[in-house]
Every structure is written in structure tokens, then in C-alpha cells.
Write a structure and sequence with these properties.
six-stranded mixed sheet; Ubiquitin-like (UB roll); Hypothetical protein af1432; alpha+beta; about 750 residues; 5 domains; about 15% strand; about 50% helix; 29 helices; Beta Polymerase, domain 2; single chain
Length: about 750
């Protein structure tokens, strides 16, 4: 900038500030003057007077907050926020964004709190500053290309408002412009980060001018010697080819004039970094890079763009394979243009870009174009008459509908990364997961062993439930335990196919082992009823017996047969009868005493030697929901087809019906003396409607040490009484009866009983 006005409101009494008033200012003082608020004011003519006052108030607050702070160049620190705001003003951002630009370092460097910013400047500005502060705390530790891409995406995803990214890019641009003042040892790190992270973000968002500038500034500080050599070579080539380019431009202008087309033609030059990159990737010398210079044609409409293309192809011969139509097929960031390379005079290739004025706004300013458009066309005609980009048009429509920058940014991000969330491991590795992914998904993404042993998690240093959905930028630490195993309930909330597959595989393996153990017990019980104390070992002459039995059952081995019995695919009594026949054929004798005792017991109400249940049976045994038995209830076991063993209360109506139809599938079961867990059962409580009733009922259950796992309530309103349904977890029938007695003594409770009507 050429302006040298001083800030009339600056309060920064620091060494170096006084040099602003000298007759021959130092470079640092000149830069400070150029970044003064007076110079910024000249760029804010698009703002209403009230907004301008708000921006000035933010400047004064920032000036006071940074009082006494000096940049490496010797300038007052306030020059940096002003320069950032000036860049945002070039994009015609709104007053809130400009205020946030001026205040962006206040929280990080000056100890200003978010509450203070909310009180002074409102919540939207405070949220923008807070978002910028969070981005500043992220550190990119590795140089791997895939990590750089993930980091870029995470930065974009973390910003809930597009203005945060724009201000951040303006901040990085000014820091790169003044990087020469920083210590030399910081150049490589900052320049590499700019080249890997921030320049691609600018390109992704369509901020072409910022993208080119960041690339060149990073190249200048990352490879100073190569930059200097290439800069001299381009300067020499520019002087040699100036006449040639000017000749081409005159011929093109004459052709358009003769055909009655009003177009704007300007020259464009390839950036030093893009020249260097092309030379490096394609192993070219500088003389072999032929598209350093080109011309840009701005036409009135899309039809005129294609007409201009035809005229150019008639004037000069096009280079085969060098034509691209980015109007018909626009880039994801909204960029649209026709590209063609023509063979000019003296055989020099000249690249042409043909686009409309509106496309040029998008090409240079990307997502900032909708603010530029509003500023330049506040009362203009429909944007669809001018904008060639459907992508930009949809953004303009959103902005016109509700002026919501957050929704605008969400729409942009649909194109950038539709279904991703980016999170960080404690070792700063970035992982991409589907949107909606949970802590368990993250654990399995690290390793299946980590997922299987997951016991808890900390997100950003705080304890969090395993079903917590992850947000962009979350730092996640998984807590594991050697005795932890996957929970079937995880299948209800995991999002990734990997996690779902691993959980199912583990549960299936676990269920198979449980079913095998259960099947072995059931076969042993059935064999005792046949007069055989236990299943014979698979050795000696018994090996042939087992081979015959497995052929009969269709199983490959004993383990598979036991598992099938446990899962109900084979009936233990039938297998036992077949095994008895095979044993007697081989000359084995039956135990007459055991046979008599077991068959007598089968006719008694209580089976002797039944399968003992203590609640540790996992997937192989389930407890019927129709009656929900608890220890102390009389029980029977039903071997469902492929469902394993289902335990019913012996007075359950469903069990009685099954016994009538399928009596051979019932086996003897009994409770262990010391169950290892609690069991759910259902109770119904009729209460008089009134305040605090539910609290009193819950207190009565808590007094009995019964845990409430679920509550149901009648939908009918306006009634004097209501029936509440509770699922409660109890140790045994005694604890259940204590809970029911407590409820019956509670005020407002009319009736309390088990759901199946048992008192």
C-alpha cells in the first residue's frame, strides 16, 4: 500500500512507535504506518456507519490489549491485527469478521476471556475469536503427505464458521509477508507448514490470489537460493518475451474488435513456485517451461466465452490435448474457466483463460466471493443472470435466505468432505472416521485388540461414555483392561463396518465357546439318564465310536457337536441314546443304579443333577422376557432351535405351551447357591397422580438396593391413577419381595406386583 497515514487513536507507547513521525521513516515504521487504522478505514467504505463504529471500537480494545507488545520487526504488535483485518476487508467480509480479525490474538496473547468478549462485542464475534484460538493451539508435528492432508481437512472441519478459516488465512498471509523479520531457524518450519497446510486450504476454497502469494512466500523462505536464481531467470525472460506477448495481445484485441465482441484482456504470469514445481516434477530446464506467460480474456456471458474460444482457435493453432472446459464441468471449489494453449508467433506457446467477470470473482476469491458479490451488487438483478457457477449460486441463495455464516459453511463442507470427522490420538496422529463415529469405532480403528479390551475413554482429557459421538479435533485416549470384552450393546451405536465386524466376530467366538461348554454339560446330563456316568474319551476303541456318532450327527468333531447341542441344533437326549447304543454294541455295560436314580428324578418336580445357573453363562443361556425369572423362582430350561438354552419360570404360560408341543427340548436347570450378578425382572406399580410420586417410588426401590434399568408409563393423561412399569435388577427373589413391600408402604402407591401377576 502507498498510504502513510498514522493512526489517530493509537495508544501504543513503545520504542519504535515514535519513528512513525520522522521525515524518513524506517522500513518497520513505514510498514506500521501502512497498517494503521486510518489506512484500514479507507478499505471499509462498503460498511454502514454503525458497523464501522463497531470495528473502530474493536480496534481500540485490541490496541489497548496489545499495549507494550512488539513484533520481531520492531513494530507495535497492533500492526499485525490491523494487517489481518485489511486482508479481510479486501474480501469484503462483514463487520463481525473484521472485529474478530482485530481481536484474534487477544485471548491467546493478552489473557482476555471469552466472557469479556461476549459482553463487549457479542457472542458471534467471541465465537469467531474462540475458533481462531482453538486452531492456533493445533500443532502439525509430522511432514508425511497423508498427515498434511488430514490436518488440512481437520482445520476446515473444526471451523464452524467459514469466516474463521478466512481470518486464519489472512493471519498466515501477513505472518508470511513479515517472516523475514523472524529468526532464521523458524523459516523452514513455518514455510513448510504454509506450503503443506495453508496454501492448499486457500486453493481448496478458491482463494487463488492468496494461494499464489502463500506459495511464493513459502518458496522464498524455504529455498532462498533457488528462489533468487529463478526470479532472475523469469525477469530476463519477461524482458525478452514482452514484445512477443504484447504482439499476441494486440492481434487478439483486433480480432475481437472486428467481430464486435467487448472483452477485457490482461496478461498473467506463472508463479515462481509453480515454475519450480513443474521443473522439479518433470525434470525440465527453465528454457523448456513454455507456459510462463499467458493471457486472460473476460467475456460478458457464458455464450461469449465459447465464441471467444472459437475466434482464438481460428487466429492461432491450438496445441492438441491442452484444452480444458471447466465451465461445463466446474471444479469442486467453484472455479470455472475455459483453458486452451495456442501456438503463437515464433512457435511460442501462449495459454489463454476465458471466463466471465463473475467467474473471475470466484476464481480469485473463492468462498469469499459471496461477500464480494453482495458488496458490489447490493440491489442488483438476480445473481443467476450473472454467476456462471451453480456452486456459488447455491451459496448466495443460502446467504440471502438467512445470513447464517454457519449454515453457509456447512454447505461448503458438503462439497469438501461430506461424511468425515477428524480426530487426534494422544501421539498427535490424525484419524479420519465417518461422521457419527463413536469412541468404540475409534478404538477399533487403532487396532482390533484395543477395541476388544476397551473399558473407558477420555476425550480432551475428560471421561466420556463409550457411545459418545466424536467431533472434529477431539483428542481421544482409550482406557483398556485385560479382562474387558466387547459388549453386545456396542452393536447398537457403532458406525464403522470394521468395528461392527470385529465385535460380531468376538461375540460369535465367545458364544461358540459358551455353547460348547453348555452342550458338554447337557450331553453329560442326558447320558446319566441313560445310565452312563460321563461321555467316553476319544481314545482307543472309543475313537471308532465317536467317529460313528459324528457321522450320525453330521458334525466334524466333538467340539462342533457340543456347540450344536448348546445352541439347540441337536437334542442332547437323542445324541445320548445313540451314544448309549454304540457303547452297548461295543460291549460296555450301563450303571443300573445311576439309571434308576436319574429316571426316578426325571419324574420328580425337582431334577437331580441339573445344569447349574449363576448368571455367568454369557450368550449360551438367555432368560425369557415373558416371565423374567430371578434366583429363588422355580425354573425350567428350553433348548430353542439355534437359540441356545432359554430359561423360563416354571409357572410361565409360554413355557407350558412349549412343553405341550416340544417336551423333548426341556432339560433340568437349577439356580446356583451364589449367583454372580443381578437379574432383571418387571414390576407394575399403580400410583395416584401427583407431584413427586415418581421420586417417592424411585426412593422406595433404592432403599431395597434395586437398580431401575427402564421405566414405562401409561400414555393416558388426565386420569386419577397411573400404572408405572419398571424393569429392575435384583439379586434374588428375597430382594424383589423387599422392594415390593417398600413400594406398598409408600404414599400414593395403590398396588405393586410383578408383571406376570405374581405377588
Amino acid at each position: 500500500m502507498s498510504t502513510t497515514l498514522n493512526s489517530p487513536t493509537s495508544k501504543t507507547p513503545v520504542s519504535g512507535a515514535g519513528r512513525l513521525a520522522t521525515t524518513t521513516p524506517s522500513p518497520a515504521a513505514a510498514n506500521a504506518a501502512a497498517a494503521s487504522f486510518a489506512g484500514l478505514t479507507a478499505k471499509l467504505d462498503y460498511l454502514p456507519a454503525t458497523d464501522l463504529d463497531q470495528v473502530r471500537m474493536a480496534y481500540r480494545f485490541a490496541d489497548q490489549a496489545h499495549l507494550g507488545q512488539i513484533r520481531n520487526s520492531g513494530e507495535p504488535y497492533i500492526t499485525h491485527p490491523i494487517a489481518v483485518a485489511a486482508q479481510c476487508a479486501e474480501w469484503k467480509l462483514d463487520a463481525q469478521a473484521l472485529m474478530a480479525a482485530l481481536l484474534h490474538d487477544a485471548m491467546e496473547d493478552c489473557g482476555v476471556t471469552k466472557i469479556e468478549l461476549i459482553e463487549r462485542f457479542g457472542s458471534p464475534v467471541a465465537e469467531l475469536v474462540d475458533g481462531l484460538t482453538k486452531l492456533d493451539k493445533l500443532h502439525f508435528n509430522t511432514r508425511e503427505e497423508n498427515q498434511a492432508e488430514s490436518f488440512r481437512k481437520m482445520l476446515l472441519a473444526m471451523a464452524r464458521d467459514v469466516r474463521v478459516i478466512l481470518i486464519k488465512l489472512a493471519d498466515r498471509t501477513h505472518n508470511m509477508r513479515t517472516l523475514s523479520e523472524a529468526p532464521r531457524e523458524k523459516w523452514v518450519r513455518i514455510a513448510s507448514e504454509t506450503l503443506d497446510i495453508y496454501a492448499p486450504i486457500a486453493h481448496r476454497l478458491g482463494l487463488n490470489q492468496t494461494y499464489r502469494e502463500l506459495q511464493n512466500l513459502a518458496f522464498r523462505h524455504l529455498r532462498p537460493w533457488r528462489y533468487a536464481i529463478l526470479s532472475k531467470a523469469v525477469a530476463k525472460a519477461r524482458s525478452r518475451r514482452r514484445d512477443l506477448i504484447q504482439k499476441v495481445q494486440r492481434e487478439v484485441e483486433a480480432t475481437f474488435a472486428n467481430n464486435g465482441m467487448k472483452v477485457k484482456i490482461s496478461g498473467r504470469e506463472k508463479t515462481l513456485y509453480s515454475i519450480y514445481k513443474k521443473m522439479d516434477e518433470k525434470h525440465l530446464s527453465f528454457a523448456q517451461v513454455t507456459d510462463i506467460y499467458g493471457l486472460r480474456v473476460l467475456a460478458p456471458s457464458v455464450i461469449d466465452c465459447y465464441t471467444a474460444l472459437g475466434l482464438l482457435h481460428q487466429l492461432f493453432k491450438p496445441v492438441p490435448g491442452r484444452f480444458k472446459d471447466h465451465i461445463a464441468i466446474g471444479k469442486v471449489n467453484g472455479y470455472q474457466s475455459l483453458h486452451t494453449t495456442l501456438v503463437g508467433p515464433a512457435g511460442i506457446n501462449v495459454e489463454f483463460q476465458i471466463r466471465t467477470e463473475a467467474m473471475n470473482v470466484v476464481a480469485e476469491s473463492g468462498v469469499a466471493a459471496h461477500w464480494l458479490y453482495k458488496a458490489n451488487n447490493p440491489n442488483g438483478a438476480s445473481p443467476s443472470d450473472r454467476m456462471g457457477s451453480k456452486w456459488l449460486q447455491s451459496l448466495l441463495d443460502i446467504q440471502d435466505e438467512n445470513r447464517d455464516a454457519a449454515e453457509f459453511w456447512d454447505h461448503v463442507k458438503v462439497d469438501l468432505f461430506p461424511d468425515a470427522v477428524y480426530v487426534v490420538t494422544p501421539k498427535s496422529q490424525i484419524m479420519a472416521l465417518p461422521r457419527g463415529a463413536t469412541v468404540v469405532d475409534f478404538a477399533y480403528a487403532i487396532h482390533s485388540n484395543v477395541g476388544d479390551k476397551t473399558q473407558g475413554a477420555r476425550i480432551n482429557g475428560e471421561q466420556a461414555p463409550l457411545r459418545t459421538e466424536l467431533k472434529n479435533g477431539d483428542v481421544i485416549e482409550i482406557v483398556t483392561a485385560n479382562d474387558a470384552t466387547p459388549n453386545p450393546a456396542w452393536l447398537g451405536f457403532v458406525r464403522t463396518a470394521r468395528a461392527r465386524s470385529k465385535i460380531r466376530h468376538h461375540l460369535k467366538t465367545l458364544a461358540l465357546a459358551d455353547s460348547e461348554n453348555l452342550g458338554e454339560k447337557m450331553l453329560a446330563q442326558a447320558l446319566r439318564a441313560e445310565g452312563i456316568d460321563k461321555a467316553p474319551d476319544e481314545i482307543g476303541k472309543n475313537k471308532a465310536i465317536w467317529e460313528k456318532l459324528l457321522r450320525f450327527s453330521g458334525n466334524r468333531n466333538r467340539a462342533e457337536l457340543f456347540a450344536d447341542i448348546g445352541m439347540g441344533k441337536r437334542i442332547a437326549s437323542i445324541v445320548a441314546k445313540r451314544l448309549r447304543a454304540l457303547l452297548t454294541d461295543s460291549g460296555a455295560t450301563l450303571d443300573a443304579v445311576l439309571l434308576t436314580r436319574e429316571r426316578y428324578a426325571m419324574n420328580e418336580t425337582e431334577a437331580q443333577g441339573g445344569i447349574m445357573l449363576d448368571g455367568s453363562e454369557n450368550a449360551s443361556v438367555s432368560y425369557a422376557h415373558c416371565c423374567r425369572p430371578v434366583p429363588g423362582d422355580g425354573i425350567v430350561g428350553y433348548l430353542g432351535r439355534g437359540e441356545g438354552l432359554i430359561v423360563h419360570a416354571d409357572d410361565c404360560a409360554v413355557a407350558r405351551k412349549l412343553k405341550h408341543k416340544d417336551s423333548e427340548r426341556f432339560i433340568g436347570v437349577e439356580w446356583s447357591d451364589e449367583p454372580v450378578r443381578t437379574f432383571e425382572t418387571e414390576i407394575r406399580v399403580t400410583v395416584i397422580n401427583g407431584k413427586g410420586v415418581l421420586a417417592r417410588v424411585a426412593a422406595a426401590l433404592a432403599a431395597a438396593e434395586a437398580d431401575i434399568t427402564h421405566i414405562d408409563m401409561d400414555d393416558e393423561g388426565g386420569q386419577d391413577a397411573t400404572v408405572l412399569g419398571f424393569l429392575i435388577a435384583v439379586r434374588d427373589r428375597n430382594q424383589l419381595e423387599t422392594a415390593l413391600r417398600n413400594l406398598r408402604k409408600t404414599a400414593s402407591v395403590l398396588k405393586a406386583q410383578r408383571a406376570n401377576g405374581t405377588e
